[in-house]
């Protein structure tokens, strides 16, 4: 009988009447009833939707835009009792949902007991203080601090981080050998940060060492895998500067601790002289999973020097009050014992840099450019001869004037 009444409950007699509940009835109202609305209030009482004039006027105020007929229809619709078959369906739905939830809960697999997870090793803290974090990330929330000498049980190694067992959640510490002495199975001390491959650039050379403008050359890179796991297929690429020539080479793999050599060719060469620095991507397609530390060193910077060769190099001693012809043809400079002046068609410029940083395109001097300052030993001076050849000289001594000079080939 109780189960039947759950689905088909009895309703009090008052619930089947169109009258409002008693708590809605009142003999007083907070605002007076206008005389012109008394007739509407009586009609609402006669229709059975209000018990008193106060209740009727409360309905009129609640629906100010409706006529009394619309108020009667809306109020009776709201107070119409729910059919019993609707109540039956609603409660049946709740019963079925509850049964489905119970069956799903009973059929779900039981969670694995964290106490049964076997450890993979132990770690001894060798740093003065080591942060314990919520995630294997140096920017995650800090949960605590471990002091030097503490021994912890390790359950997982991930990207150089060690997972420990905390009270309410997993926690992680940095597994670098600078902070933790990690001993794996059998007590063998291992480097947790080397459990993944780590591609690095060991060295590089430029062939030829100083390419001329427009001369093909190549970068020979020596790569090493500094990680503890083999690296699978990966690619090395670079964009040469300033031509933006793109070079790409695929490497079949690199064993843990091994080294290999790859070449990036610039078949057209570079036309601008000087030092150029480019970035080389060691794993441009990101096919080798190296962890956060390994991925951070996958772009390395290399440089090469482009310059024209010298066509002549020599040492020259100049007497005061004489004109100087550096490399045949008309005289280029005049030396008065203190100042070196450029003659017609030649040019001079003092360079505030070491001789090793001077290149051909840097010596683009204007016609007749002169420098009237006194020479000093050790000065680096760029020049252009009356015939248009570019060169550079170093002042060895001033009294007497002795210089070392080099002249670039025109092409």
Instruction: State the separation between the terminal residues, measured CA to CA.
Output: 111 Å
Task: Indicate the radius of gyration in whole angstroms.
Answer: 46 Å
On the 0 to 100 scale, the average pLDDT is 82
- Overall number of structural domains: 4
CATH architecture of the largest domain: Sandwich
Strand portion, in percent? 25-35%
CATH superfamily of the largest domain: Immunoglobulins
The CATH class of the largest domain is identified as: Mainly Beta
Give the helix/strand class: alpha+beta
Structure, explained:
It is a single chain. By secondary structure, this protein is an alpha+beta fold. The protein folds into four domains: 19-78; 115-194, SH3 Domains (SH3 type barrels); 199-306, Immunoglobulins (Immunoglobulin-like); 310-408, no CATH class. It is 16% helix and 33% strand. The chain has six helices and 24 strands. It has helices at residues 2-7, 38-46, 53-62, 68-78, 84-107, 291-295; strands at 121-125, 129-133, 142-147, 151-154, 156-158, 161-165, 170-174, 180-183, 189-190, 199-207, 217-225, 234-239, 246-251, 259-266, 274-281, 299-306, 310-318, 322-324, 333-335, 340-342, 347-351, 380-384, 390-397, 401-408. The strands form seven sheets. The protein has a five-stranded antiparallel β-sheet with strand order 17-24-23-22-21, with no helix packed on it. The chain has a four-stranded antiparallel β-sheet with strand order 4-1-8-9, with no helix packed on it. Strand 2 and strand 3 (142-147) form a beta hairpin. Helix 2 (38-46) crosses helix 3 and helix 2 (38-46) runs parallel beside helix 4. The radius of gyration is 46 Å and the shape is elongated. The N and C termini lie far apart (111 Å). Residues 13-17, 21-26 and 110-114 have low confidence and may be disordered.
